[in-house]
Design a protein that fits this description.
By secondary structure, this protein is α/β, with parallel strands linked by helices. It is built from eleven helices and 23 strands.
Length: 483
């Protein structure tokens, strides 16, 4: 459908696209309705979308009904996405000086387990992609390429990290673009030049956070800055490009933190202009090369209201991606669920939590982890996991929300209108032993109701209504709005 493929140029995306998009959506609804009166078509494309997969154990060996029904839901989709939040380093990859937490590494056969479930779209842009440096990242890419898996978000240089991956399906070609705002220092890919090769890494979505404080607090910060820094390092700037709505209020930058003087207190965040423009350009490219476009973002950062709310810069990026032509925007990273928004008839999942979380059954960790935890040279990897969680009394093992999630099923009609958004509740085994928890299966009826009620509450802030029925959540699509 040509109307749906209209491209919004990056320089005009914030000014023109919301108006263009709304107009196009109106035309699509009218013409789609008229067409439905004469030619009925039940052909739809179905997407299955999940959050993070940190896999270190076999998944396909389980034959219990709750597992098999879940796998059937995923394998039945035309395109199934997960974020592969690990690496497949070969024996020559050493640990980076800085990891994304625990150093995530998996045997190559876990990719066969995921593809065996039905996944055929993989993001490789996340804070663990560089745990074993450039060699580990390139080894992961090679392992995926050797298996013919479609992936996006990392590459030998920045252009390749930004490039879409393409999946051919019977219902149309699908493009995947993957970005990450949460990443370790130095893990973003470097740009290629005629006289210098690029640096392997991930596709970044950098951002800036601005803290607005009252005059008294601002003056105190200035005084503190003079005590801990040279006066020349204190910088008062009028950064209108980054913070347009604050007019001429002065800003104080202290060691990378930006404070604005104003009457109210607030926290605002903004995506890096260059990264946002390149995201829009990637979507524009994919929009013309594929029938369907999915954008993925790995984002740990949270909004001012708490860690179950998305940051402002992510909302800005998600809207820009949809305005530029993306059909689905799916985020992950905080390891918990966040709300869902239907924006111009396109779903935005601000976090789908975890699909597999087996980050405590890795066999090896570098010396830095042992040293950071104060463990002796005689300690082993199990001591790391016991110490980090204080025997499961803190961190991920102690938080129920980390071990409950959903698989999102999204269906579109052939005319590109949104047909259905369904949420399948899953359990990853909260409070089960370390060697058992982390693998997904359908949640119990009682647990399913609780999970859907939780994501429904989080989605109300975006004007999204979700109802629970037959063990699943259904997003109520407003017929007055474009689908």
């Amino acid at each position: 459908m040509t109307l749906r493929k209209t491209v919004c140029k990056s320089s005009l995306v914030h000014v023109l696209c919301p108006f263009i998009k709304g107009s196009l959506a109106l035309v699509i609804v009218i013409t789609g309705h008229a067409h439905a009166q004469t030619v009925q078509s039940s052909e739809q494309i179905d997407f299955a979308l999940t959050g993070d997969s940190l896999v270190n154990q076999r998944l396909l060996i389980y034959k219990d009904p709750a597992t098999l029904r879940l796998y059937k839901d995923i394998s039945g989709a035309d395109a199934a996405f997960t974020n592969f939040e690990s690496g497949v380093p070969d024996g020559h990859s050493s640990a980076s000086a800085q990891g994304g937490g625990l150093y995530q590494s998996s045997p190559a056969w876990v990719l066969d387990e995921l593809s065996g479930i039905g996944f055929n779209l993989f993001s490789t842009a996340n804070n663990h992609a560089y745990d074993f440096g450039a060699e580990g990242l390139l080894s992961t890419i090679k392992s995926m390429d050797d298996r013919g898996l479609v992936h996006a978000g990392s590459g030998e240089n920045l252009a390749l990290a930004r490039a879409p991956g393409y999946l051919d399906t019977e219902k149309g070609r699908v493009a995947l673009i993957a970005i990450a705002s949460s990443m370790t220092q130095g893990s973003q890919a470097g740009e290629q030049r005629p006289d210098m090769i690029g640096r392997p890494g991930i596709n970044p979505l950098r951002f800036k956070t601005v803290y607005t404080v009252d005059a008294k607090t601002f003056d105190t910060l200035q005084s503190v800055a003079k005590l801990i820094m040279h006066d020349s390092a204190n910088e008062i700037v009028d950064d209108r490009e980054t913070y347009k709505n604050k007019g001429n209020q002065p800003q104080l930058i202290i060691q990378g933190l930006t404070f604005v003087r104003d009457n109210a207190t607030a926290i605002n965040s903004f995506p890096d202009n260059n990264d946002l423009e390149n995201l829009v350009a990637s979507v524009s490219d994919a929009r013309r090369e594929a029938e369907w476009v999915v954008v993925s973002s790995h984002t740990h950062e949270s909004g001012a209201e708490g860690d179950d709310t998305p940051p402002e810069f992510l909302i800005t990026a998600a809207h820009a991606a949809i305005d530029a032509g993306a059909d689905i925007f799916v985020a992950h990273g905080p390891h918990i669920l966040r709300g869902i928004e239907i924006y111009h008839g396109r779903p935005i999942f601000y976090s789908l939590g975890d699909f597999v979380l087996q980050n405590e059954t890795m066999q090896f960790q570098p010396a830095e982890i042992y040293d950071a935890l104060g463990l002796p040279s005689t300690a082993n990897v199990a001591d790391i996991y016991d110490t980090r969680s204080l025997l499961d009394t803190r961190g991920f093992p102690a938080r129920r929300a980390v071990w409950e999630s959903v698989v999102a099923k999204v269906s579109f009609h052939k005319d590109h209108s949104l047909a259905e958004v369904k949420l399948i509740p899953i359990s990853l085994g909260f409070k089960e032993p370390r060697y058992e928890r982390g693998r997904p299966k359908l949640a119990s009826p009682e647990q399913s109701k609780s999970i859907i009620e939780g994501v429904s509450k989080l989605s109300k802030a975006f004007g999204t209504r979700i109802v629970f029925g037959d063990g699943r959540g259904i997003v109520v699509l407003d017929p007055a709005k474009p689908k």
